[in-house]
Amino acid sequence: MDLDLIAIAILVVLFAAAAIRDVHLGVVTLPAAFGVGIWLAKISLDEIFAGFPVSILILLVGVTYFFGIAQVNGTIDRLVEAALRKVGNRAVLIPLVFFGLTMGISAMGSPLAGLVTAPVAMPLAKRFKIDPMLMALAVGCGLSAGGFAPTSLFGIVTYGTARDADIPMSAITLFLIALVVNLMLFAVAFFMFGGPKLLRQKGDFADDIERTTPSFTTSYAGGTGRPKGERYEPEEDGKPVRTIADETPDNKLSGIHWLTVGFMVLLIALVVVLSLMGKEPDIGVLCFALAAVLAFIRPADGKAAIGKIDWSTAMLVGGIITYVSVLQAMGAVDTLGEYAAKVGAPIVAAFVICLIGGLVSAFASTTGILAALVPLAIPLVAAENIPGWAIISALGVCSSIVDVSPFSTVGATLTATTPADQRERVTHLLTRWGLSMIVIGPVLLVFGLVWPSSL
């Protein structure tokens, strides 16, 4: 067996072994990259270090630090509760609102942060007689869409890795593709799981949110105890429930909240405007700059937000991409290109790699799969006229929409927060939905995006 194929086989074994033993994949692949590079590839330490994705890590750390401050200072808490109150008694809007809320939170650095809405969304589905499967998919699709924002990890890893491989790609285009696909899936779920009947259903949603939901401040920002300004009133069973008085100043946006919101808007505006001008804004550096201002204003928030930085994902991406850079130096990518050429039809090869991405991601880390497969899809870009942005976007979205499977973190959280009397049904349906996406995703993305864009 050729040395490059041995190196690829080692990566596959590492993925499997880390999953079975529940070991952090980044911790495993980083030393393996140096071992394979030195002993098999015969390349120097300097060359291996050059493959370490410094630019992507700056993005990851900068984005998660900035939005970590927004969590710690309570800005996200205020925005979420304000959005929930706007729903009023329109039950049909509840799934859509949770789609939007989850997407917005997932876009703020870490896609899995969007799961904070699940413990609120799933019990409310029962309270308002909404099919819990519809609510689960509203959260799952919102998380997948928001995860591909230019400020979130799926998007950062996908377009960052593509750019490092010299594949021109717009972060905005990637996000829009993910948003459209997930809106389509959410629309299908809406009609499959009782959405139309909600048009005739009413419920006092705003009052329910104010009286019975757990504090977003304590659950999402990681604090403990009662937020300042809350009042507790007894119910008939004597148990205290949370009551938020609209006149309480702590419910309103203070100066630091308005400043943080303004910085969020400024960040989005800079990314969009600079992208339209043909520039490549460094989102990580922008986030560090904005976070530094907030940290100087309130140093305690800046210190607390250090713990919000997603160091685990930074390690994961760093290890995998360094290993993949060694594979590239060994010529493994060229070898895969030769195999892709033998397939005969690049579209078939694109379908297969998207299928593999979805299949593995249903049981493993989506971020890890993106970091590993995006560079290995380069040979397909070189084959005939397949646009790089199209195949990379298809691969990314196909690897994400399967995450509602109960075998993944997202799906497991959704089933765990479903009321007990519906949990078995939701688990069964999410399994069928998630596994069906392994095939539906490649069909939809390859033949609906990649193939038309290559004509």
Automatic annotation (TrEMBL):
UniProt entry tagged with the keyword Metal-binding: no
Transmembrane domains' residue ranges: 49-70, 91-113, 133-159, 171-193, 256-276, 283-300, 312-333, 345-378, 390-417, 429-451
Organism: Epidermidibacterium keratini
Name of the protein in its database record: C4-dicarboxylate ABC transporter
Keyword field: Membrane, Transmembrane, Transmembrane helix
Compositional bias segments (type: Basic and acidic residues): 227-240
Segments forming domain Dicarboxylate carrier MatC N-terminal: 1-147
Region (Disordered), start-end ranges: 214-245
InterPro entries, per the entry: MatC_N (IPR009827)
Pfam family, any one: MatC_N
